[in-house]
Design brief:
Length: 316
């Protein structure tokens, strides 16, 4: 584990998991040794308030990233990705519900199918009824909005080729949508059934606040996927629609006034027509400004709205 170049990096975010850390490390170590690959193990202490960090410091041959406070799983994974040196990066939860023995299945799936990312599928989840209900609802919305093509995007147990994570910056609760983000960029995504175990120590970190944050991040990603290169298509299209509605309402008001001799002073028709016209113009202008900002973003950063997988030169 002393060499800089590794075949595998195991990244484990943890928050108040003092009862699980030592057991999990031993399981990861045994699983990695059985693969006959060079590896590193990275634990991210996400601002734990128990003895998680003290127990991590007693473990040899690991890399520890300690946050000053609790920033969340997405931030912990992002920090782990940026410190990992392995050709393939494995992520898993620190609560012992993911089984390190499944790392082999992820790698086999990746190799046989030439996948860039392989996600675990907790087909038989060992969670509470309420958590399962929330998860199924979130999965339904994710399939509709994100369209990542997998069954269980929320499973932390995943294997990534390092090239997938280049220039990938995570924020909010977007770690659940990494497969969708990578699929939009053209990477090949696979999935394999994995074991899911009952939590025996500690408490779950999921609550209604994370659910709401995740939903809002999902909407943001949906918009970014469809309109990141041309936001004018969204805002401008909506603006034109409002202007069209304004034209119809205005024409109807003129018809009532001229041909039906109806007094419109007691109706909201003319006011509504003017409001939709002004709103439509504002959305159209906002779309143009957003388009300019997006172009400046791509021109001022290294990121491009496309990725090249390879270049083949067959010239003789």
């Amino acid at each position: 584990m002393e060499n800089k170049n590794k075949q595998l990096s195991i990244v484990v975010p943890c928050f108040n998991e003092e009862g699980n850390i030592e057991i999990l490390y031993a399981e990861i170590l045994n699983a990695c040794k059985s693969l006959n690959k060079t590896f590193e193990i990275i634990f991210i202490d996400d601002g734990s308030t128990d003895k998680t960090f003290e127990k991590l410091k007693n473990i040899k041959q690991i890399k520890i990233i300690k946050f000053r406070k609790n920033f969340g799983q997405t931030a912990a994974l992002d920090a782990g990705f940026k410190k990992a040196v392995g050709e393939i990066i494995i992520t898993m939860d620190g609560d012992l519900q993911n089984d390190p023995k499944d790392i082999k299945s992820l790698l086999n799936k990746m190799e046989k199918g030439e996948y860039d990312l392989v996600s675990g599928w907790r087909k038989n989840r060992q969670d509470s009824f309420s958590k399962k209900v929330v998860s199924r609802g979130a999965n339904f919305l994710r399939k509709f909005l994100a369209k990542d093509g997998i069954q269980d995007s929320g499973c932390t147990l995943k294997a990534y080729k390092k090239e997938c994570l280049k220039n990938l910056d995570l924020y909010g609760e977007t770690h659940r949508f990494i497969p969708a983000i990578l699929k939009w960029k053209g990477f090949k995504i696979g999935e394999v059934e994995v074991n899911h175990r009952l939590r025996t120590h500690g408490e779950t970190k999921y609550n209604w606040k994370r659910t709401i944050k995740g939903f809002l991040d999902m909407l943001n990603l949906w918009f970014w996927r469809k309109y990141s290169s041309r936001p004018l298509h969204f805002f401008g299209g909506f603006g034109i629609f409002l202007i069209l509605i304004s034209f119809i309402l205005g024409s109807y008001a003129i018809y009532l006034k001229i041909f039906q001799n109806i007094d419109l002073s007691d109706t909201a028709l003319t006011l509504l027509s003017a409001f939709t016209l002004l709103s439509g113009i504002q959305f159209l202008i906002f779309g143009i400004l957003s388009d300019i900002l997006i172009k400046n973003y791509y021109q001022g950063s290294k990121e491009k709205p496309y990725l090249i997988k390879e270049i083949v030169n067959n010239d003789l």
